[in-house]
């Protein structure tokens, strides 16, 4: 039994090590295979030696794996200074005094295609006493269990600020959910206009979008807004890696909300973001519809976004017919 467990542990460790080296190896082309291949050859050699009765092979592999872990935890560090893609080249940060928040590097791109856009980074001021709504935006690109989650804060007068947890893609990066487990991307909290981050997903990338009005008291909504600002500021000072499970667009929303309403029940739907509406409905956070299915049907804004002429009417157009309540001052 001990031999079996040792073999399983060695096999799992060898596989993890090969994947870690693959995703963090900066060499291009065939050279990228060199370190993972060498690691697997050495691991296989240690395994065969152990099975042949050379117990020292297990200790040798333990030493190898210890060195790999030391490199992984102490030398593989997140950075803010890389060759970023233009849409994540800047980081949002802000300050707040007496309920007045000033945000810098709010993205307001005008998108023509995924590769063609007019870049604009702006600074905006938001008066939290005029905060009127909180909307969860879910954007799907193929699988019902997975969606990108954004939170849009609406203010009196029709202005909206969208916060989105993004991977900071470098030039040449392609998104990989597996790579998200292996420190392939840094994490970013980005503020943007709805004409940017919401419209680009439906009208340019062809994603399917849904909007849900979340019933929150104004003090809680303001605290959530400030939590986003504080998290964005902390990432500017101390970068973090994105993680497919522990630090993604949905789990970070949950962590922020849990700071405001401690004890929120943890649920598998926090990880499978496509099912967040059912989770919120079960908590009583969605009102105005009799079921999550009805809410989904009325909250789907994809066609409305594509038909909208844009401009100041875009935010109004995507919310037509969406059930929910307006936040009331507490």
Question: Whole-Å distance between the termini?
Answer: 62 Å
Number of domains: 2
Largest sheet entry: 5 strands, antiparallel
Oligomer: single chain
- Using DSSP, what is the number of strands? 10
Average pLDDT, all residues:
89
What is the string of helix and strand elements? HHHEEEEEEEEEHHEHHHHHHH
- Which percent range fits the helix content? 40-55%
Rounded to the nearest angstrom, the radius of gyration is 23 Å
Number of helices: 12
Shape: elongated
Spans with pLDDT under 50 lasting ≥5 residues? none
* Helix-strand makeup class: alpha+beta
Percentage of β-strand residues: 15-25%
Write out the strand line-up for the largest beta sheet, numbering strands in chain order.
9-8-7-6-10
Keywords: Membrane, Transmembrane, Transmembrane helix
Pfam families: Lnb_N
Protein name: Lnb N-terminal periplasmic domain-containing protein
Transmembrane segments: 44-75
Q: Can you walk through the features of this model?
A:
- With 330 residues, the chain is α+β, with helices and mostly antiparallel strands.
- It has 2 domains: 75 residues, no CATH class; 234 residues, no CATH class.
- It is built from 12 helices and 10 strands.
- The strands form 3 sheets. Strands 9-8-7-6-10 form a 5-stranded antiparallel beta sheet. Strands 1-2-5 form a 3-stranded antiparallel beta sheet.
- A hairpin with a 5-residue loop joins strand 3 and strand 4.
- The radius of gyration is 23 Å and the shape is elongated.
- The N and C termini lie far apart (62 Å).
- The model has no long low-confidence stretch (mean pLDDT 89).
- Pfam families: Lnb_N.
- It comes from Achromobacter kerstersii.
- This is Lnb N-terminal periplasmic domain-containing protein.
